[in-house]
């Protein structure tokens, strides 16, 4: 950023020219700052723009225009996490535009009031709303937050779109407006927890109405009104970056819908400003664009803040934001001073009310009147249905009420209104002051939220004695009320006795303390982290313990949302906090994100009785059939009806969770449409969708010596659990693909360089695949192949593929010999699972596939035996480095060494298989069983010892801390 120009460079194509974008201001706030003693970030260089500079450039202009009587709008747009909320609201001592604007406004109002004449009045009212999922919620009226369908958006021919029954609070000073905004933020926090959504998924609008009544030069009373809209938009995300493509996705939160509508409106307005004719501006496409109509293309002076992320991985999204802002630059608004004689305004309102009352008293609306009203409201004319007429009646009644209210407000003096609001505000002020005082001496819980602006907004005090914790359905009412996923009516009991605090979960309530699930009465200490249900995260604050720790010189770091969830992941065995690289840090963030998602998805599945369970799965590069690469975080969905499982990548899981939230919210709201058909159900996947059963690694070193390979390979899943076995052959051949002579063995692989080499690869069969697999096939890539080679798809859990393919390398190169010596062919086994009808009644009570039982038995036995078929390399045994002086030196035959190594692998496999069979037989004897079925015997023969190839540390026992939410395939090192 240089001056007014922002330049962006594609990090993946540095040869291209940078793209410059010119704006009125370009601010750099990434570095060149330091934190002073009170927490304010002040610049240490010329580049850094602090909050004061941003307000002086932008906010002060909004303030000046409000005093002149212009409508003003300021909205922040950008990617999630780019700093929109920081610019608008700020954090801690670094106050943003909204609080500084309010503070400066009241400073000036107080000065004016001190010298005001008898007919001068200055009035400020505040409204605060949130748009989530295309529904409007009044944040200053908690009773309407969970109202079904949200508040209605109406249209007035003169004023445009407005929210019906939106609370408008009179405020007399900065302290009152600050308390009201904090109340709104607190209600927003509770709503986001209840709705299972973060604040970045909703738009927030703070509407400040500033009215001045002053006499003009002739002594006539004039009213000047300015409506200031301060808008914090939801985070914008590109569809491809969130994985929206390729999966059936309607935007569960409707964020992209409203932001897309905003983009369409801005494009249409930009086209209008360039002289294009017949451009229709689609304000009606979303609630957001309706309410921003004045701000975007009407009577308003508007400023847009485009927040950018400096991270190179966000290049596409940053470029999109810059283009969006560049297009918005072309829009021209026509702002006028909103000033009229007060008496005339009252007279016009009285006349309009009389006209509306006459229409209502006539007993209904004529079709012509209804059509006129609809047309005036922005809809189409023509014939009107009865429902439209009824809707118009409601609008008339609402307009009469608002006009009457406005007339009464104009007649009242500022002192009368101040007295009325003082009664309401004083109670809130007293409660806030009491809460602040109590936080210094009374133990309490304060909330953690993904958005720092919503952290510590909800406080629950732990009073002496016993306090019951539960949801709103608790009877009698709970002392501490929580809302959200998996919160039971009677969830926990908190006991406070002589400064000692403990918590005890009730029934099957889920509570984690410092990342560990508790099942009995547990003491709490200062700064302990508690997770109630799926998404209620709190920190316990004990003032006496804190004072004691400070006295002893023990200073504990204040927990954050991220650190609390990292702790949960660590206790689950999914990460190691020591010696983390940059790649591990990225993986850690993904693990924490998916762990939250899995917790919430499981809670929703349980409440909706979807009979599926979710787990976090870490897939190592080796488990994906590649030598190098990064571990991938995925989510496994497992059916609780049968043994079917599906793997979702991160983006698909995020999208499915959005759809789950929509269904869950409909369920909580009592909507009938929550029980959708299975094809639209985000908790459902078709059974015949192909899944990766596992992989088998065929090492090729024997081919480098022109030796046959005849292997029974273990097929292992991402955790290293054996899912069956595969019979594979690789036979070196002559040019005509005939058998080689016995003496064609190659002592030194490099001797083949420059010659031609031929061999046949056969995949004979698979044995002992999981019982829920109905069909299967194999595919692999050999050497420099770009595409997979595939076998035919076969039915049965013991398929015979009888696949054969001939290969030739002419001539053999050094690179090819290196590939044979060190490489392997990774053969993937893909299968289609049986549906419920195919598995029949036995599937509901069926045991795990035998291969999985073998792995569990092996894990219980805690044997250290490893299956050599999965060793990374298979080399001839080296000759002894040095023999004792008295012993003769024996040169080992390389051919025999290779064959010996193959025998070792087969022997280890056989030992593992035998151990597995013995374990299963012993388990059957313990239960009194004396017979086995043919299927069980086949599964035993196909089973193994729980190979750990490519999967890292395996732990088949469920993790108690997370309630079966993790599959520990590998640990972040």
From TrEMBL:
- Name the Gene Ontology molecular function terms of this record: ATP binding; microtubule binding; microtubule motor activity
Biased composition range(s): Low complexity: 846-860
The role this protein plays is: Microtubule-dependent motor protein required for mitochondrion morphology and transport of mitochondria in neuronal cells.
Report the domain of life of the source organism: Eukaryota
Keyword annotations for this protein, in alphabetical order, are: ATP-binding, Coiled coil, Membrane, Mitochondrion, Motor protein, Nucleotide-binding, Transport
Listed name of the protein: Kinesin-like protein 6
How does this chain sit within the bilayer?
Answer: Peripheral membrane protein
Coiled-coil residues are: 386-417
Q: Where is the composition biased (Polar residues)?
A: 954-973
Q: Which Pfam families match?
A: FHA, KIF1B, Kinesin
Its GO CC terms are: mitochondrial membrane
Its localization reads: Mitochondrion membrane
Biological process (GO) annotations held by this record are: microtubule-based movement
Chain sites annotated for binding ATP: 78-85
């Amino acid at each position: 950023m240089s001056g007014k120009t922002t330049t962006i460079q594609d990090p993946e194509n540095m040869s291209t020219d940078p793209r410059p974008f010119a704006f009125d201001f370009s601010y750099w706030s990434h570095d060149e700052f330091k934190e002073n003693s009170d927490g304010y970030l002040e610049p240490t260089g010329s580049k850094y723009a602090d909050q004061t500079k941003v307000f002086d450039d932008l906010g002060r202009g909004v303030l000046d225009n409000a005093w002149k009587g212009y409508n003003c709008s300021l909205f922040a747009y950008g990617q999630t996490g780019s700093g929109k909320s920081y610019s608008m609201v700020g954090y801690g001592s670094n106050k943003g535009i909204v609080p500084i604007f309010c503070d400066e406004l009241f400073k000036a109002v107080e000065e004016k009031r001190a010298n005001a004449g008898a007919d001068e009045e200055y009035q400020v009212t505040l409204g605060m709303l949130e748009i989530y999922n295309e529904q409007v919620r009044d944040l200053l009226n908690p009773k309407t937050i969970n109202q079904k369908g949200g508040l209605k958006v109406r249209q007035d021919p003169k004023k445009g779109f407005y929210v019906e029954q939106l609370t408008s609070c009179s405020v007399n000073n900065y302290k009152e407006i600050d308390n009201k905004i904090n109340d709104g933020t607190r209600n927003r926090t509770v709503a986001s927890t209840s709705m299972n959504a973060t604040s970045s998924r909703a738009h927030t609008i703070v509407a400040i109405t500033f009215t001045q009544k002053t006499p003009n030069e002739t002594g006539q009373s004039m009213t000047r009104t300015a409506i200031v809209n301060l808008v914090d938009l939801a985070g914008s995300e590109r569809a491809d970056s969130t994985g929206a493509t390729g999966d059936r996705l309607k935007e569960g939160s409707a964020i992209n819908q409203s932001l897309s509508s905003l983009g369409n409106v801005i494009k249409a307005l930009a086209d209008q400003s360039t002289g294009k004719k017949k451009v229709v501006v689609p304000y009606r496409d979303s609630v957001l664009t309706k309410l921003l109509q004045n701000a975007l293309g009407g009577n308003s002076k508007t400023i847009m803040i485009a927040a950018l992320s400096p991270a190179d991985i966000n290049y596409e999204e940053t470029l999109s934001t810059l283009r969006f802002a560049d297009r918005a630059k072309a829009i021209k608004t026509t702002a006028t001073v909103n000033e009229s004689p007060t008496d005339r305004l009252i007279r016009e309102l009285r006349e309009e009310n009389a006209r509306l009352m006459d229409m209502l008293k006539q007993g209904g609306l004529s079709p012509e009147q209804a059509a006129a009203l609809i047309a005036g409201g922005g809809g189409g004319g023509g014939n009107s249905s009865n429902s439209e007429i009824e809707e118009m009646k409601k609008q008339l009644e609402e307009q009469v009420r608002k006009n009457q209210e406005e007339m009464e407000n104009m007649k009242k003096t500022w002192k009368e209104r101040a007295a009325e609001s003082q009664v309401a505000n004083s109670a809130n002020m007293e409660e806030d002051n009491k809460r602040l005082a109590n936080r210094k001496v009374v133990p309490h819980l304060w909330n953690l939220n993904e958005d720092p602006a919503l952290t510590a907004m909800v406080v629950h005090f732990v009073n002496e004695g016993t306090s019951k914790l539960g949801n709103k359905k608790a009877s009698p009412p709970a002392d501490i009320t929580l809302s959200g996923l998996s919160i039971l009516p009677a969830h926990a009991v908190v006991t406070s006795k002589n400064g000692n605090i403990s918590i005890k979960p009730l029934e099957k309530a889920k509570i984690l303390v410092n990342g560990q699930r508790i099942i009995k009465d547990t003491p709490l200490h200062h700064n302990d982290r508690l997770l109630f249900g799926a998404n209620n995260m709190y920190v316990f604050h004990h003032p006496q313990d804190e004072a004691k720790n400070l006295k002893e010189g023990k200073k504990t770091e204040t927990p954050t949302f991220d650190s609390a969830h990292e702790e949960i992941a660590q206790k689950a065995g999914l990460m190691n906090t020591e010696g983390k690289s940059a790649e591990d840090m990225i993986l850690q963030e993904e693990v924490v994100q998916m762990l939250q998602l899995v917790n919430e998805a499981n809670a929703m599945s349980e409440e909706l009785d979807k009979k599926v369970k979710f787990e976090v799965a870490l897939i190592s590069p080796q488990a994906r059939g590649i030598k190098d690469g990064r571990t991938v975080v995925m989510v496994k969905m497992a059916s609780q009806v049968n043994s079917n499982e599906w793997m979702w990548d991160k983006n698909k899981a995020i999208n499915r969770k959005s759809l789950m939230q929509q269904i869950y919210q409909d369920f909580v709201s009592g909507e009938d449409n929550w029980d959708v058909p299975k094809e639209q159900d985000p908790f459902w996947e078709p059974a015949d969708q192909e899944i990766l059963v596992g992989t088998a690694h065929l090492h090729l070193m024997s081919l480098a010596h022109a030796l046959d390979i005849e292997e029974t390979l273990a097929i292992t899943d991402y955790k290293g659990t054996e899912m069956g076995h595969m019979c594979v052959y690789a036979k070196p051949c002559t040019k005509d693909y005939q058998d080689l002579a016995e003496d064609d063995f190659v002592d030194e692989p490099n001797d083949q360089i420059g010659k031609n080499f031929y061999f046949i690869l056969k995949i004979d069969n698979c044995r002992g695949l999981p019982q829920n697999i109905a069909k299967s096939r194999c595919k692999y890539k050999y050497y420099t192949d770009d595409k997979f080679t595939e076998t035919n798809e076969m039915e049965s859990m013991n398929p015979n593929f009888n696949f054969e393919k001939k290969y030739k390398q002419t001539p053999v190169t050094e690179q090819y010999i290196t590939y044979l010596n060190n490489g392997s062919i990774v053969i993937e086994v893909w299968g289609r699972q049986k549906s419920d009808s195919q598995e029949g009644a036995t599937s509901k009570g069926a045991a795990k596939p035998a291969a999985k039982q073998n792995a569990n038995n092996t894990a219980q036995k805690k044997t250290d035996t490893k299956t050599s078929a999965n060793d990374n390399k298979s080399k001839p045994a080296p000759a002894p480095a040095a023999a004792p002086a008295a012993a003769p030196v024996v040169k080992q035959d390389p051919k025999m060494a290779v064959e010996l190594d193959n025998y070792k692998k087969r022997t280890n496999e056989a030992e593992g298989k035998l151990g597995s069979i013995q374990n299963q037989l012993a388990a059957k004897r313990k239960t009194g069983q004396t017979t086995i079925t043919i299927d069980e015997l086949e599964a035993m023969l196909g089973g193994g010892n729980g190979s750990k190839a490519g999967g890292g540390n395996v732990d088949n026992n469920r993790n108690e801390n997370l309630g079966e939410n993790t599959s520990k395939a590998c640990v972040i090192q």
